[in-house]
Fold this sequence. Notes:
Elements: E1 5-10, E2 13-18, H1 29-44, E3 50-55, H2 67-76, H3 80-97, E4 103-107, E5 110-112, H4 114-119, E6 124-127, E7 132-134, H5 148-151, H6 159-166, H7 172-178, E8 183-184, H8 190-199, H9 204-211, H10 219-230, H11 236-244, H12 249-260, H13 263-276, H14 282-296, H15 300-311, H16 329-336
Parallel strand pairs: 2-3, 3-4, 4-6, 5-7, 6-8
Antiparallel strand pairs: 1-2
Helix pairs in contact: 1-3, 2-3, 2-15, 3-14
Bound molecules: 3,5,7,3',4'-pentahydroxyflavone (QUE).
The site of 3,5,7,3',4'-pentahydroxyflavone has 15 residues, from helix 15.
Amino acid sequence: xxxxxxxxxxxxxxxxxxxxxxxxxxxxxxxxxxxxxxxxxxxxxxxxxxxxxxxxxxxxxxxxxxxxxxxxxxxxxxxxxxxxxxxxxxxxxxxxxxxxxxxxxxxxxxxxxxxxxxxxxxxxxxxxxxxxxxxxxxxxxxxxxxxxxxxxxxxxxxxxxxxxxxxxxxxxxxxxxxxxxxxxxxxxxxxxxxxxxxxxxxxxxxxxxxxxxxxxxxxxxxxxxxxxxxxxxxxxxxxxxxxxxxxxxxxxxxxxxxxxxxxxxxxxxxxxxxxxxxxxxxxxxxxxxxxxxxxxxxxxxxxxxxxxxxxxxxxxxxxxxxxxxxxxxxxxxxxxxxxxxxxxxxxxxxxx
Length: 352
Ligand code: QUE
């Protein structure tokens, strides 16, 4: 067992609380396994009607995965422990996506990468004034995983492509506007919301509605027209050309965001979003993402991105290839290629 996850049940309500505050609750293999084991138990338990998912002490809901450990995997064990982590994390994501009981995720603070993967599949997703939502993997040469290939292409207009290619941070109001959150509740009310759900688990929806407030005007809404126009092209080169051709300060800032990120990440994301249209279900998306993850953790861009963002913190990565033109279709074909049959991702047998 691990003390990095706190598991409780209060009457008919189960409660999972992330407890790794020194890393903004970034997920480890043990945390994914402990959460999944509890969820599998509660799934069968007729005494449990609702699951609450939040974080314990400290700022942030969940900053992602333990990418520093993943980076070591490439050199230490040929990527074996990295693949083991993603296999377990994606099984957890899929278990939540197919979970038959209502889950309420409280995105009260940093909700990035892995944190998106455990909150987006929840039936109820609560944003607050503290929410900082992002898929920032382009900064570390990884790719938008944990189901992003399912969620992002379903957002309105080109918002999903915008989030994947810029790594833009959304606040709680923007999450509510985009549909990434189902409710906006001030953080001061969360303790009472949880207590009220525990007291009346059949009233989840009414309690969330009662405590919801009107979020401030979302900045993202004001940029929707230009996002839809400038992120419409199918290719990374086309999007960059569209941003260059617009003389607004906004376009100049987003151009800088897009071109500072890993070019391979961006092209992987665009292909992933296209391929998701052919995925018959969420499990097919996760199997595709696992193939991509197995290749991306072995690429030098991932080690370099984690070095630049989290180790040396110079935010000056050297990408290879350095330009969109350098990332060929043949390279993408290799990243997306099937794994040997025995190495492919599979969901929990109980969750199919
Ligand atoms: C992209 C990411 C992650 C990131 C930054 C990125 C990520 C992650 C963390 C992170 C942040 C603070 C911590 C920690 C990890 O940062 O996945 O342990 O204390 O976990 O640009 O994907």
